Amino acid sequence: MNTLDKTNYQFKNQSAFYKGKVRDVYTINHNILVMIASDRISAFDVVLPNGIPYKGQVLNQIAAQFLNATKDIVPNWLISSPHPNVSIGKMCEPFKVEMVVRGYLAGHAARTYQSGLRNICGVILPDGLKENDKLPYPIITPTTKASKGHDEDISKEEIIKQGLVSKEHYEQLEKYSLAIYARGQEISNKMGLILVDTKYEFGLFNNQIHLMDEIHTPDSSRYFYLEGYDDRQLKGVEQKQLSKEFVRKWLIENGFQGKDGQVIPEMNEEWINQISARYIELFEKVTGHKFIKSNYNQINKDVEMAINLELEKILVN
Fold first, then answer.
1. Which domains does the chain have, with CATH numbers?
2. What is the pLDDT of residues 173-197, one digit of tens each?
3. Which end of the chain lies in a sparser environment, N or C, as judged by fewer CB atoms within 10 Å?
């Protein structure tokens, strides 16, 4: 099965290379990032053995569309996307936290709530909520940004106390995060979806806050179908969703949550194709565009050529 798993390029003026969980990142001239979205998939901070066809393309194209749709709210890192799997942008100095915005009680927050805890990252939630209920208002539950291992929940107070982010910068990150989430929710609702929760990463470029990385993709966000949401909640049945959560649930059901000693369950071809189809479905639903599959037989040549042509233009300017 063809997937874009890894790259091995050497670009002019390349100053660094980093292989992330799901992306290969090349640094040019110490100030430009070339980010190639692979088809690797991670869950519970572990890269799974099998790639998912077209996943990288889905993530990259959704992110590019939403970065362009929110750049009036906050500047972002993206300069261009010269290939469906590639984004090129400014190299920012990242803040050491991720801003997780939640409008609904789902995923990790729901599991924490069901364990009996009501304080999530310093935010007190009311009693009586059910999984997937809409929260009284969107909340921010930040996490530390771990280079290895699991990200950890943390409160605003602890972030400022530990000096991870200054009070002034953190309060600006809160405002930006809530405004971007509101814009994402507005766009999603028009497409018949609910943006349940999402995460944002920010950094500094020329001492100005910039939105980084990907936004509103199925890897960084959770979506429910808007139609029938209220009825499903009333009946207490599972919400129809488009996100990576179904992969996490499958792993949990098969005895894997990324803990020591646990073995990653085998993913057969049928299941891999189902995951790929869900990613493509979300792309078409959230963007309103028909998904056009990249040609895997020549993808490495196409990626390299597109990047080289774009870097020539950027470096000249």
1. 94-243 (3.30.470.20)
2. 999 999 999 999 999 999 999 999 9
3. C
